[in-house]
Amino acid sequence: MSISVIGSGAFGTALAISLAHQCPVTMWARSKEHARVIQNDRKNTARLPGVTLPDQLTVTSDMEQAAAQDTLLLAVPMQQLRRVLTEHTAWLTPRTLVACCKGIELGTGVGPVAVMAEVVAQTRTALLTGPSFAHDIARGLPTALTLACADSDLGRNLQQELTTANLRLYRTRDVIGAELGGALKNVVAIACGAVIGAGLGDSARAALMTRGYAEMQRMALALGAQRETLAGLSGFGDLTLTCTSEQSRNYRLGLSLGRGERFDPSVTVEGAATAHAVYVKADDLGLDLPITRAVVGMLDGELTLTDAMAELLARPLKEE
Ligand SMILES: NC(=O)C1=CN([C@@H]2O[C@H](COP(=O)(O)OP(=O)(O)OC[C@H]3O[C@@H](n4cnc5c(N)ncnc54)[C@H](O)[C@@H]3O)[C@@H](O)[C@H]2O)C=CC1
Ligand SMILES: O=C(CO)COP(=O)(O)O
Fold first, then answer.
1. Has 318 been annotated as catalytic?
2. Does 131 contact ligand 2 (Cβ within 6 A)?
3. Whole-structure pTM over 0.95, yes or no?
4. Where is each Glycerol-3-phosphate dehydrogenase NAD-dependent N-terminal domain found (predicted)?
5. pLDDT tens digit string along 189-232?
């Protein structure tokens, strides 16, 4: 088996570094200049400073070269995935495509695996998700992730291929559950960052994490996910990490909202677009997602944190 990582951001670079300790890996960057600099300097200073690339990692901007491998890991932002696939469809068939992004696509309301299957005909698809920060993986710190694949045999092969000494993969066939866990936890992380940023305390965060998890389950189960998947690494595990660490960009966006500070719009924050996509989808399904609604309101500047909290606290009392 041979592996390429498509996308040379923080996560793509981290995965490529980790895997290149056990097999040759090619990493694709869309910019020729960026690819040349990373390849020559053996560092991705812009996205993952302080980590050296192993010798077995080759960086290229030539998609034909990158896509010549058996397994391609797609590590680009969710809202860019369709464009990347569409621009390079000719090279991507028939390969095994593993989405490494977390989110729901605006406009269609679907996750990365559905987008891959739709754009690239006759492809085999899977998803790699779960609690991990790029810097932790790149530094070889212990991490456990979920490999979701509807095809059991392919899932087993990918689990073997992509597990490394420090990166342990668990397997599931519940692709929709794994996708939704990774996408929805980012919305809750923005909410948690906001309450901490506004100084509302750890107890408020615990309430939001728990009720946010209930919201994640409501949405995911309505779309056919299994409850156990939500309780695993891709759901509860990632929710815990993202709602409690300033390494998370989603959580940091929330902190900025809570503090009334500006947030750099060039930073990849998947939860912002996903909150809007999920809000529309929930409306279609007749689901009530009050925390998602509050996050959308704050992101759109239509609700202050104070108003959002007042709305949440004034909801009718009910059973847990
Ligand atoms: N950074 C992290 O710790 C983790 C990130 N992820 C997920 O990985 C995905 C990517 O995130 P990061 O690598 O962290 O983001 P990033 O912002 O560090 O990098 C994104 C990369 O995508 C490239 N890109 C953007 N638009 C593109 C396009 N149209 N065509 C080709 N390339 C394009 C950018 O040039 C950049 O190299 C996200 O869905 C994120 O949720 C998952 C787990 C951990
Ligand atoms: O998905 C992640 C952790 O599992 C990374 O979180 P952020 O995208 O919020 O940085």
1. no
2. yes
3. yes
4. 3-153
5. 999 999 999 999 999 999 999 999 999 999 999 999 999 999 99
